[in-house]
Amino acid sequence: MKRFWLSLASVLVLGLAAPSLQAQDSDTDTGNDGESGQEAPFSVTTSSNDARDRLVLQFNWNTLLNTPDSFNLQQKGRGFNFYFYFDIPIGGDNVSFAPGFGLGTSNFFHESFLVLETDTNATGGMSGVPAFGDTYAQPFPNNLDYKKNKLSLTYIDIPIELRFKTNPNERGNRFKVAVGVKGGLVIASHTKYVGTDTRPGALPGSTDFVKYKEHRVRNLQNFRYGVTGRVGYGSVNVHAFYGLSDIFDDGKGPTGNALEIGLSFNPF
Hints:
Layout: H1 2-29, E1 55-65, E2 77-85, E3 88-89, E4 95-109, E5 112-116, E6 135-139, E7 146-165, E8 175-196, E9 209-215, E10 223-233, E11 236-246, E12 257-265
Antiparallel strand pairs: 1-2, 1-12, 2-4, 3-4, 4-7, 5-6, 7-8, 8-9, 8-10, 10-11, 11-12
């Protein structure tokens, strides 16, 4: 895992250095007299509409795959990501390499409580049976009156894309495809519940609604990583991310691989 993050950091450093190298090459091409030569017919400088995907805003539908039945996942998750990229052309203007960084958020709605096993005699050893210190999903009791229950995660992400673009049309827009990978570090996590008070000590038969958050969810994976894809035209794209890592530590919490699908916009 350390080698993976060192590799991502190295790529990011190269991305930071590339714009200055490109600027030097551009100055050299203009010649000593300061006058530029003839521009290529499809140069990015010929169109103010040619988005280079340096800032990408993503609006996501989030879900988890391969979760246990006890998690009772609801298919209304949502999230938001924003990333800054360094677009580095490869050979020409139609293929580029783009490392970046930014923040990613995910909200997973489910009908279960995430419970930490506190029985010191619990040894686990069987599928679905928690040991002491494990996190497990406890399904809601029948007819529980509630409004919201979700798990929220925030990551610092390092995405990397290999981009393919057509030449710009008369409007300066391009069709484009990007494939890549993304790694992230959890910087914040919490659960939020709004509904009937079911906590220990609540009055029997109480119908009072409560709102409470639990921060720093136990046994979460500190890192996530997975594959990404993006297809678009101009400044509008459809994107996806599939997590190759579980959201909880292996054997210490419910299984689940993140899936994001959504619309993204790149204003410049």
